[in-house]
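pinning this so it doesn't scroll away 📌
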Amino acid sequence: MGGVNLKLELEREDDGRWIAEIPELPGVLGYGSTREEAVALVKSLALHVVADRLSLGEAESSLDMVSFEEAA
């Protein structure tokens, strides 16, 4: 059984909104009025993408864990 560790990048916009992105999953990014909101949204989107890839056979079927690591 294996797992994947996805790096999460955060940035604060000039208007105060937060952007969270998972570079390994193109298009997976989310905005939030708080850091926590952006992180929760992008994690949810990433899990949906991974689930879709599993159901389509595009990811290892032995994948049993997804974790997130905030980029430094």
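📌 and the second one:
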Amino acid sequence: MKYTIKLYITGQTARSLRAIDNLKRICDGELLGQYELVVIDVLERPQLAEDEKILATPMVVKELPPPIRRIIGDLSDTERVLLGLDLRPLPS
């Protein structure tokens, strides 16, 4: 089983870059490479953001495995991110 995670950002701001770094650190530490991370800049793909109903950024959407989970912020609180996205390490 692999996790599918999308991170919606608005431009290459300090907050966006911090969210990318934090999410990569969390995923690398907890999901042991069993994930696909897609970073979407809503300035470049506004229609996609509208279709997904992205109202604030940075926002993470965990699509797989179900259920879909969303969390907003720079993702600096690892425990909050793990709990909010229902991320658990996969069994070895």
